Each structure stands twice: as structure tokens, then as C-alpha cells.
Amino acid sequence: LRYFHTEEHRKYYYGSRDLDGPLAYTYGPYDTKINGMQSQITANWSFLEITGGVDWTEFKTQDYGYNYAKSPAVTHSDKAGFLIGKLRLFNEKLIVNAGVRYDEYKVELEGFKSATPTNLTPSFGVAFLPLDWVKLRANYAEGFHLPTPNQLTRDVISGGVHYIANPDLDPYTSESFEIGVDVFQDWWDAYVTYFHSKYTGQVRSAATGAFDDNGLPVVEYFNSSQGTTYAGIEFGGKLNIGGLLNWKSYFGPYMKATHFTARRAYREATRAYETDTEIPDWVVAYGLDFDNPDIKFSFNINASYVGRARVQNWSPINRPNVPYQGYFIAPSYTIVDLLFKKEIFSLSDDKHKVTLNLAIRNVLNKYYESRVDYPGPGRNFFVSLRYDYN
Length: 390
Prior knowledge:
By secondary structure, this protein is mainly beta. Helices cover about 0% and strands about 65% of the residues.
């Protein structure tokens, strides 16, 4: 049994201040309170393990915006129960996992409507070791995401449009599965995984064709019947050359990569599926690791490749040949980082030790944009000392 309570009080300032003068204007505090309780019990036998429990969480926020204008307080509460089981068979050559969780939410916006969405999310997985060094695995899971408090409970006028809340909105859900194989040896290992995720019921908005008493067009929120699909392959591995040659040091290359074979998203404007934006076709990390326990020194050199992505043009000044809000392909880029670590002090019993860390990010000072029109940092350095006491 566990109970927790957390409070956070922040204050934001925005504007300019003359010498010894007041701020021109300011944003006020942002207060958060979190209460929760968790309880679970586990029964364990030689071949079966079962865990059941309940969760309760309450999350309250109070925002004071521009010039301390008080915004409506938001309260999220969640009552949940869960059950998880693990079955171990054939000397743990075959392991089966299954679970289910039920959540009942209540979303309240001070002075407005309230909503009580519910959701049931199952999961299932199996792992099989036909050989001591090979594992076959498959997993299936469902997830969900709640609509925002405004979408559920608060009518808003913004940009000359009257948005009508819909307390009957459902959480939008996801279904994901993956299958893969892991191979592991003393001095190398590798893996490959195929994954597929589909998201349905995203909250969209559309004009109703009606107008309110002030003549503003009315827009309502709804759960889309269409969805978004991501699928692809992940693979990677590492090779310990030092272990192969019976060195005391670990030394060897590694690589891990993700390739998206599907990035389909439904676009309301065209009523068609298109390639989703901001999702690169490839993401690859590769490099070299070294670690010598005798001299207590290690280093890593890592290259991160981010492939091409379809993005939307929000800056016609930067791209006059691309229509405003039109689409284009952002180029790929590679960033190289270096990390060094050296233990510079320790006592014989290893209870006290001091470690020096040096990191050089973007060693080649490459220009890149992690998001379109948002340049990433150039070459930069980090130095730190870490003290450990055990």
C-alpha cells in the first residue's frame, strides 16, 4: 500500500524591466497538486505469478495567466484496477504474459461541464527459447489517450470561431503488436523486430454549419472514425572484439536502426490518407564503445542519422518556391558525438569515488534542423565531476 502527495508552485515572468522598475507585464503562478494511492498483491508459484491491484490518482492544476488573470481550475481523477499474470513453462523455455486494466476517469473544469470517460486496455505477450541463445517473442497491447479538458467540458471562442465541448468524447485508442527474434552470444548479440501500431478515434473538429447568437460559426469536436498507422522494422546488434580476443577491455562497434514502412495519417482537409509529417523514414545510431576496468577509462563515439521526412511549410520567406502550408521533403542529417569518462579518485574499498566526464556534442559542427525551421545546437561541450558514495 502506498499513498503520495505532491505540490508544485511555479511562477513565470514575461516582459521587460527598467532599472529598479517594475515588470511591464507578467504571467502569474502555476500550481499543481497530486494525490494518489496504490495497492497491489502478488501470488507466486513455481510456474505461475499473478498480481492484482488498484490505483487512485487525482491531479489538480490552477493557472494564473496574463497579469494574474485566474484560469478555471482543472481536476483529473482516475480510479483503476489491474490484473497481470505470468506463466512459466518447460523450465522457462516458454513464458506467457497477459494483463488487463480498467480506468474510470473524471475530468472537471471549474465552472463548466464534467466528463467521465472509461477505458479497458488488455495486453498479451509470449516468449519462446528454442535454443539457449535464441529467443522468439511476440507482444500485443492496447493503449488510450484522453481528450483535453477544453474538448470535454469547456465551450471556447477563439479566432472568431465558437468551439462547443463534447462531454461524450471517447479516449482515442491504440492497438500495437510486434514480433521479433533475439540472438545472444558471449561476444556478440543481434535482434530484429517488426512493429505495427494503429491509432483510432483521434479527436477532430468540424464546422456544423450553424451560427451562435453572436453570428459566430459553430465548431464541434468528435471522434474520427479514421486512424493513423505506423509500421516498420527495428534491428541492431553489437560486437565485442575485446571479448573475442580475450582482452580485459570491452571494445567493439554497435548499431541500432528503425525503418518506417508505413506512416499513414488521415487528413480531414483532403479526406484521404497521406504520409504523416515529421516522421523520418530512417533513424540509425551507430558507433564504437571502449571500456577498460583496469585504468577505469571509457569512451564512446556515436553517430546519429535521421532520414528524410515529409513536413509542412509554415515559413514562405525561407521557402518561397513551396506554397504556404504546403508540403516538402526535409533533408536527412548525421550528428556525431564523443563521450569520455575517467575515474580520477577512489578509495580501496570503492566506497568513495570521483569520475570526470567530458562530452562533445555535434563534433563536426553540422547544421541541422531537428524540426523544420528550428536549428539544432552547433558544437558544444559538457564537463562534469561525479561523486559516488556506496
